[in-house]
Amino acid sequence: MKTLKMEKVMIALDYDPTAQKVAEMGFALATAMKAEVILMHSITDIKYYSSMASSPILGYSGVMAMNQVKKDTVDNLITASNHFLDKMKDHLGDKTIKTIVQEGDFSESIINSAKKEHADIIVMGSHSKKMLENILMGSVAEKVLQESDIPLFIVPTKKR
């Protein structure tokens, strides 16, 4: 039987404070496999970000809060997202990590980025959302699982 080598791990991150846990788990997986790491974030509807008045971009100190980010244009969100991914790269301590910011539907952006980058596995979190957010977004992890042929490593982040 041929051994499958995983060479690229793409870690899809949202702005939930649990993103740090997802990134750390994905990074540990990639390190164990001696694989390249790609961090990605997808920007969706600007209205989604404007509803996040005071949520921190990341769950650890030293990172700006969403209320400090100008969220009026996609360009401003791209700048904030690149900052977010750069801070995560610094936190993980690996300057070779590639970062990607996409615009569009969360699940479609994750799947398309993983295919374009030839990722061998996608790492993402799955957490319970507020009912309104669930209605608006659905379960991103579930949609990626159903529509992608790339293996998925899901990190449970539900708050207990």
Can you tell me about this structure?
About 9% of the residues have low confidence. By secondary structure, this protein is α/β, with parallel strands linked by helices. A five-stranded parallel β-sheet has the order 3-2-1-4-5, sandwiched between helices.
Relevant terms:
160 residues; alpha/beta; five-stranded parallel β-sheet; 41% helix; 19% strand
Strand order, sheet with most strands? 3-2-1-4-5
Number of strands: 5
| Rg computed from alpha carbons, rounded to a whole number of angstroms | 15 Å
Q: Which structural class should the secondary elements be placed in?
A: alpha/beta
Q: Tell me the span between the first and last alpha carbons.
A: 41 Å
Order of helices and strands: EHEHHEHEHHE
Number of helices: 6
Task: Provide a compact summary of the structure.
By secondary structure, the chain is an alpha/beta fold. The protein has helices at residues 19-33, 46-50, 74-92, 106-116, 131-137, 140-147; strands at residues 8-12, 36-43, 98-103, 121-126, 152-156. Strands 3-2-1-4-5 form a five-stranded parallel beta sheet, sandwiched between helices.
Secondary structure blueprint with pairings:
Layout: E1 8-12, H1 19-33, E2 36-43, H2 46-50, H3 74-92, E3 98-103, H4 106-116, E4 121-126, H5 131-137, H6 140-147, E5 152-156
